[in-house]
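subagent[fold] <- orchestrator: predict structure for attached chain, return tokens only, no commentary.
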Amino acid sequence: MIRSNRHRTARANGAAPAASAGGAHLFGGRSCGCLFTLILQTTPLAADEPFPVPSGQAVTLTEVLLDEAPGELWARFRFIAPAITHDSGSISYDQAGPDMDHLCDELAMPYLTYHQIAPARVVISLMDRPVEFGAQDPAATQFFETYRPDDTRCIWEEF
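subagent[fold] -> orchestrator:
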């Protein structure tokens, strides 16, 4: 998938893309470059396959953004999780919290290790529908957690 704006984020072979370091801003400022990667090349998981999480909800990776805009490198893993939707969702934030911890430890950390990326922070985002990074969508439900990578584990960081 190539987004229709002047800063392209690429998707190759159904794998989630990683935007290059230099900022994850899609409009203005530093832009996303194209860096084709295969998510977790050490496993057969495709980007459009749900990743297993403790709550049992269907969670699908949509993109990986490398962002230096906060003043240090942050890796942002963005997932679609339709069960968190505000009106009819079956998964609350309390249920999704352990899912985000699991996604950081079991998906993000192996990805970062494999691609030799050493961010200062990892952000796990769950969205009930696709929302462009940085865009506002009042109808969308989104949950976020921030972690500090520590060897092969994620340490939760309170905002």
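orchestrator: received. Logging for downstream: Strands lie at 18-19, 60-67, 74-80, 121-127, 142-150, 153-157. The helical segments are 93-114.
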